[in-house]
TrEMBL record, chain A:
<dbReference type="InterPro" id="IPR000914">
    <property type="entry name" value="SBP_5_dom"/>
</dbReference>
<protein>
    <submittedName>
        <fullName>Peptide ABC transporter substrate-binding protein</fullName>
    </submittedName>
</protein>
<keyword id="KW-0813">Transport</keyword>
<feature type="compositionally biased region" description="Acidic residues">
    <location>
        <begin position="29"/>
        <end position="49"/>
    </location>
</feature>
<keyword id="KW-0732">Signal</keyword>
<feature type="signal peptide">
    <location>
        <begin position="1"/>
        <end position="21"/>
    </location>
</feature>
<dbReference type="Pfam" id="PF00496">
    <property type="entry name" value="SBP_bac_5"/>
</dbReference>
<comment type="similarity">
    <text>Belongs to the bacterial solute-binding protein 5 family.</text>
</comment>
<feature type="region of interest" description="Disordered">
    <location>
        <begin position="27"/>
        <end position="57"/>
    </location>
</feature>
<feature type="domain" description="Solute-binding protein family 5">
    <location>
        <begin position="105"/>
        <end position="488"/>
    </location>
</feature>
<dbReference type="InterPro" id="IPR030678">
    <property type="entry name" value="Peptide/Ni-bd"/>
</dbReference>
<dbReference type="InterPro" id="IPR039424">
    <property type="entry name" value="SBP_5"/>
</dbReference>
Length: 575, 311
């Protein structure tokens, strides 16, 4: 009897201690429902290199990472998500690759291609390089892969998306035309000739994107439906080879690829990756020393903000309010320019990023992100326009009064459509509070919906204001600017300005070969969009934070395509 | 008995067909596209991708195609979670870990729960009884994901007794998730056994047994326990449901490559074929559990007659 009492007491103490221990650590289990756009924040983030400790590499070169989601497909023709593009960037390679300064440099291409006078024909010479099974990489491998990515039978989303309108004949081929009409020809084993629809100044950076990687026809045909179904049914030509991936599992590795043409640069021997979807779990694994990096999403960013092992990374992803000018066939109050201007000046972005987001994001008074595109002499595109419309409560009130007078109303009720994650909710509540405080007579109704629903409402143009975001698809300001030309598939807010449209048209057409004038045109278009028309109201440029062990060196983060390169990474001082 | 089982299996098939139908149409009402980059594609480009996965057919056609495949055991291919992978393969490859932690959790929970319930009943209204009630209430009311996180933080990270997460150290990796899953069956079993035992202990035949001089333990195990077990079998079904739903979050928290974890993801990315396949798989499992429970009834208590059975 005495013993049994003791036993139960012990049990009770144990149970209680579990609670106390857990509470003491401030452990939190948030079941985050992030929008697809946000999921990559969990990825094994990046690298502003930890300072100091740039000593010699250790003998053991093993990096342990977590990833936020499974690999949906390793077939470069089919891939459409950040996890796959990130791995593809490390186990494969295209004609070009983004280097440590995020400049596209020749990779499988031997040198810069020969470009014709009119800027439409690119002739690439390939370097001598092999697939991981020893077969040489040929120009035919590129031709095959690109045509495959456009084949309707394959059903690739990114093939047509990346190639249509850029490579000659891509639109037609993606809709079922004869593939030989595509402007991609392997003249011989080492010569690839690409014909474009229109001059494309950023074409080299596209060549670093996963969809444009080569595939070995013999291998793909031999594997048939099994191609890319696991790590054995793939060929690699990049710094690493994917191993131990069973196709549906939560774990895989990357091993150094001895056949890689630049293998001597690669220092890491093995990268072990495990999919961990809960941020709190990833942090526990980081703290137990099993993982070398862990992303800090949502409220975890604030919690760890002062940790010495935090690394911050600015992403070229911009969030902004879309102002819908026409809903269900009727003009909304947002069709009035002064109303739009008033709202776009009515909220304090600095406080938003400092207090609500607290993850290093920047307040944005612009559309084209900072640290994203650079001219030939290294100047940031942002330097042309600098800051456009920012927070100014006094001016906002003036515009508001004028606007209300013009539309003949004293009170306006607007809906603000946003995401359903906890963070999105907090942010939208903050925006509502700011707008309603600074603009008398304005009522903002929040509508929080899942990502899929938001897309549907966006498409139906069934909203007033929408908290929306965009990440780049290629390294050029145009990937942001042309979202808003009249009738563009992302416009969906009845914004139309002839001058804006013509500037975009010029930048895509006659100015394509004059980089400086082209940038001026795009900058002017951006200024019209934001300052003159207030068609959208920029909010912030996203940054992410991660914890990274101080012995991890030189993981390079990229603004588009694969998020990270491990080619130059190494471990130093772990012991 | 054989006839009874045969009849039950026919009902099972009907139930499954209904579940499949409901899930199919409910899922089609779900907003969002299974194409991850749908927001970027033009309508023509989207149509091409939809055609690839047969999503362009009219809904009834899609439905009959699906049901026809289902009858032949074909669950289709994944649309975006594991592009092009066979859904059956996906589920099979994820089954092992789920089955292991589910079974261990169930076993641990029921055995501990029974013990706890029995002791509480035998020591009714003492502090032992009260603390067992507290444990039961904690087990019922704290969601398994909270419990899982606490276990991970305390026993995993702080004390280092078990792996923090991941599925790499064999049995050791399964301990914490199994405990997290065990809480619900433990609490349920403890409450039921306690109530039943108290009722049985108060009945006439126990008094008779006592009068005849049977020892305390003999009464507890031989007479009271077996009768108290019957109601517990009734709750095996709900307990299995609890384990199953618990596994959705517990697997995610411990980053275990199980079905539950993968099911959650498939819903978030609207991968229709995976959602369908997993729902059907879960349904088959639960229906089987219920059938087994009903058969066990007859074995444990012959007084409970199966309709048409003369066992």
């Amino acid at each position: 009897m005495k013993n049994s009492k003791l036993f139960w007491l012990l049990g009770l103490v144990l149970v209680l201690s579990i609670f106390l221990a857990a509470c003491g650590g401030g452990d939190d289990t948030s079941n985050e429902t992030e929008t697809p756009e946000e999921t990559d924040t969990d990825a094994p983030a990046e690298g502003e290199n930890a300072e100091g400790n740039t000593g010699e590499p250790d003998a053991e070169q093993v990096l342990n990472l977590v990833e936020g989601a499974e690999i949906p497909s390793m077939d470069s023709a089919i891939a459409e998500d950040s996890v796959a593009f990130n791995i593809l960037n490390n186990v494969n390679e295209g004609l070009f690759r983004l280097n440590e300064e995020n400049v596209a440099i020749p990779a499988l291409a031997e040198a810069e291609p020969e470009v014709s006078e009119d800027g439409l024909t690119y002739t690439f010479k390939l370097r001598d390089a092999n697939w991981s099974d020893g077969t040489p990489i040929t120009a035919q491998d590129f031709e095959f892969a690109w045509k495959r990515a456009l084949d309707p039978e394959v059903g690739s989303p990114y093939g047509p998306y990346m190639m249509a309108g850029t490579i000659k004949g891509a639109t037609e081929v993606s809709e079922g035309a004869d593939p030989s009409e595509l402007g991609v020809v392997a003249e011989d084993e080492k010569t690839l000739v690409v014909t474009l629809e229109r001059p494309t100044p950023y074409f080299m950076s596209l060549m670093a994107f996963g969809t444009f990687y080569p595939q070995n026809e013999a291998f793909v045909t031999e594997k048939g439906d099994d191609y890319a179904s696991n790590s054995d049914n793939l060929l690699y030509n990049g710094p690493f080879m994917l191993t131990n991936w069973d196709g549906t599992g939560l774990t895989w590795s990357m091993e150094k690829n001895p056949e890689y043409w630049d293998a001597e640069t690669v220092q890491l021997e093995t990268i072990n990756v495990d999919v961990v979807k809960e941020t709190s779990t990833a942090l526990n694994l980081y703290q137990s020393g099993e993982k070398d990096r862990a992303g800090l999403s949502g409220e975890f960013a604030m919690q760890y903000a002062d940790d010495p092992e935090v690394v911050k990374e600015l992403e070229p992803t911009l969030f902004y309010l879309k102002f819908n000018q026409e809903r269900n066939g009727e003009e909304t109050p947002l069709a009035n320019e002064n109303i739009r201007k008033a709202i776009s000046m009515s909220f304090n972005k600095q406080d938003l990023v400092d207090v609500v987001l607290a993850n290093g994001s920047l307040p944005a008074n612009y559309l084209v992100p900072t640290e994203f595109t650079f001219s030939e002499d290294g100047a940031d595109f942002r330097e042309i326009n600098g800051d456009l419309t920012g927070f100014d409560a006094e001016q906002a009130k003036e515009f508001w009064a004028t606007g209300l007078e013009e539309i003949g109303q004293t009170e306006v009720t607007l809906e603000l459509l946003g995401g359903d994650s906890e963070l999105a909710g907090k942010m939208d509540a903050y925006l509502k509070e700011q707008m309603e405080t600074n603009l008398e007579g304005l009522t903002v109704n929040l509508k929080a919906v899942p990502f899929g629903v938001r897309l549907e409402l966006d498409e139906a143009q069934d909203y007033d204001m929408q908290n929306s975001g965009w990440g780049p698809d290629y390294q050029d300001p145009m990937t942001f600017i042309d979202l808003f030309v009249t009738g563009a598939s992302h416009n969906l807010m009845s914004y139309s300005n002839e001058e804006f449209d013509s500037l975009v048209e010029q930048a895509k057409g006659e100015l394509a070969q004059d980089p400086a004038a082209r940038w001026e045109a795009m900058a002017e278009a951006e200024r019209i969009l934001i300052e003159e028309d207030a068609a959208i109201a920029p909010i912030y440029q996203r940054a992410t934070m991660a914890l990274q062990k101080p012995y991890v060196q030189n993981i390079i983060s990229h603004p588009f395509g694969g998020d990270y390169s491990y080619k130059w990474a190494f471990i130093s001082g772990k012991e | 008995m054989a006839r009874y089982i045969g009849k039950r299996i026919i009902y099972m098939v009907i139930t499954l067909a209904l579940i499949a139908t409901f899930t199919f149409f409910l899922m089609k009402i779900l907003p969002g596209s299974p194409i991850a980059s749908a927001d970027k594609l033009s309508p023509e480009q989207r149509a091409v991708v939809e055609a690839r996965y047969g999503l362009d057919d009219p809904l009834p056609v899609q439905y009959f195609n699906y049901m026809f495949g289902l009858v032949q055991g074909d669950l289709g291919i994944s649309i975006n979670q594991f592009k092009g992978a066979d859904v059956t393969d996906v589920i099979l490859s994820r089954m092992g870990p789920s089955a292991q932690i589910g079974f261990q959790g169930m076993l641990l929970g029921t055995v501990l729960g029974i013990l706890l319930g029995m002791i509480a009943a035998l020591r009714q209204n003492t502090w032992i009884d009260y603390s067992s009630t507290v444990v039961a209430i904690i087990g019922i009311s704290i969601p398994s994901f909270v419990f899982a996180s606490m276990l991970q933080y305390s026993l995993g990270l702080k004390l280092g007794w078990f792996p923090v997460a991941l599925w790499k150290d064999g049995f050791m990796s399964s301990v914490l998730p199994s405990i997290a899953l065990a809480m619900f069956p433990l609490a349920t079993a403890a409450r039921f056994i306690r109530t039943e035992m108290i009722e049985v202990l108060g009945s006439d035949y126990i008094t008779l047994a006592k009068a005849k001089g049977a020892s305390g333990s003999e009464i507890a195990f031989k007479h009271a326990f077996r009768n108290a077990l019957i109601p517990l079998i009734t709750v095996l079904g709900p307990m299995a449901v609890g384990i199953l739903t618990g596994s959705l979050v517990v697997e995610q928290i411990f980053a275990i490559p199980g079905i539950g974890e993968q099911f959650v993801k498939s819903i978030m990315v609207s991968d229709f074929s995976i959602i369908m396949g997993t729902t059907i798989f879960f349904s088959v499992f639960l229906i089987l559990v219920i059938l087994i429970v009903d058969i066990m009834y007859g074995i444990i208590d012959p007084r409970i007659r199966l309709s048409g059975g003369k066992s």
